[in-house]
Structure formats: C-alpha cells, structure tokens
Amino acid sequence: MNSFVDAAVEQFARDHTKPEADLYARLREETYRVMESPQMQVGVIEGRFLKMLVRLISARTVLEIGMFTGYSTLMMADGLPEDARIITCDINPKAEAIAKRYFAESPSGYKIEVRMGPALETIKTLSGPLDLVFIDGDKVNYSNYYEACLPLLKPGGLIVADNVLWSGKVVAPKDETDHAIVAFNRLVQSDERVENVCLTIRDGMMLAWKR
Ligand SMILES: C[S@@+](CC[C@H](N)C(=O)[O-])C[C@H]1O[C@@H](n2cnc3c(N)ncnc32)[C@H](O)[C@@H]1O
Q1: Contacts of 149 (CB under 8 A, 6+ apart)
Q2: pLDDT tens digits for 23-69?
Q3: Is 89:115 a contact under the CB 8 Å cutoff?
Q4: Which of 26, 46, 64, 67 for mutating ligand 1's site (highest number of atoms within 8 Å of CB)?
Q5: Which DSSP symbol is given to 191?
C-alpha cells in the first residue's frame, strides 16, 4: 500500500514504532506470498495504531468488517483485556483458512469470533453495545456499514474506517468505488451524531466518535 508520506519518512516512522512480533511477520509474509491483493493488509503502523485505540478507549466489544487474513484482527485482539472479544466478518474462505491458523497460534486468538458471510447480514444479528467498529470491507458498502453500526455503538464509542483517501482518488472521483468513498466521507462529516477526524495515516483513516 502506497503511503502519502515520503518513503524515507515512512521508513523512519516504522523504525520508531515497536516492531511486529514474529507471528505477525510470518502472517504478512504468507499473505504476500499466497493471496491476491495482499496490500489490503494493514501494516505495522496502522495495526499498532488500532491496537492503541482499542486500549485507549478500554474497548471490550469490537466489530471488524473485513478480516482478510487477520492481521488487523489480531492486533486489536492483542489490545483487548482477557475477557473481551472481537467479532470479525469476511466472505473469503481462502483468507479465513489462513487467519484461523494464526488465530489458533496466538495467545489472543480465543478472543476472536469469526463470522463468515456478508457483513450486513452479520450486523443484523448483533445487539451491541459495541465499543469500536473497524470498517475495512468492500468500499461500496462503507455508508451502509456506518449506518448499520452506529446505533449499536455505545456513546463514546469509535467507528474507524480505513482507506478513506483511496490512494488520493477522493479528490477526483471517477468510478463507483471512488464515489462511494467520497459519499462516506461526506456522510460522516455532516453527521451531528459524531465528532470526526480524517487522518492521513497510510491510505487515510476516518475516526468518528459517537456523542
Ligand atoms: C481490505 S481487506 C481487509 C484487510 C484486513 N483488515 C487486514 O488488515 O488484513 C477487505 C476484506 O473485506 C472482505 N469483504 C468484501 N466484501 C465483504 C462483505 N460483503 N462482507 C464481509 N467481508 C467482505 C474481503 O473478502 C476482504 O478480505
């Protein structure tokens, strides 16, 4: 994944972020070796940032939309206390098989509940309250995920959405996905139910804090 930050500066930031544990390095290596579009995986900086957010808000129930091979899932699980949980959604069985192997190996794996199937269907089965929702699934549904999850989020909870700058294409949107990401950003920006900040970390992260 390209960063908006100069490559040498990005490397400096990585060098001054606690390195990933061996399990994460192996997961990253395998993902890049066997999966299509491996750059979808959040890297160590965003992963550690997610873990930090989970810790800072003392989250106990997290929902992730878009598990892929589980890098971000594991990072957030590591940030959770022992008796907390993260529900994660995906539709790709090949990614699921990889993720589950690493979850089984991780001391935090028992906190993770995998729900396969379209995330909008999974969300309908949840009752909340959720402390944090990480939206990183199919981009055309970002606004739908946001609207479906916000009522389940407790006041003071966080919605975090990845790729909201979409490699910069948001400033001159062309295809359906570009427009969907722009519409999502507009939706959050105009929503009085939340306070929000759009960050330039990696491919852009929107943080929306529910009032
Ligand atoms: C950007 S990747 C997630 C990356 C992951 N968070 C990580 O750090 O490794 C997006 C994932 O969303 C999944 N996805 C796509 N459409 C979905 C849907 N309707 N419901 C649930 N997951 C979906 C894809 O299969 C893919 O694995």
Answers
A1: 63, 65, 123, 130, 133, 135, 159
A2: 999 999 999 999 999 999 999 999 999 999 999 999 999 999 999 99
A3: yes
A4: 67
A5: -
Written as one letter, the residue type at 15 is D
pLDDT bucket at 128, cuts 50 / 70 / 90:
confident
Cα gap 45→54, rounded to integer Å? 14
Angle at which helices 7-15 and 44-56 pack, to 10 degrees?
Answer: 50
pLDDT in tens, 176-192: 999 999 999 999 999 99
User: What phi and psi, each to the nearest 5 degrees, are found at residue 110?
Assistant: -65, -15
Does the pLDDT at position 2 exceed 80?
no
- For 193, the token pair is 């139910």
pTM across the whole model: 0.98
Pocket of ligand 1 (CB under 6 A): 40-42, 66, 68-69, 71-72, 89-92, 95, 118-119, 136-138
Distance 92 CA to ligand 1 centre (A): 8
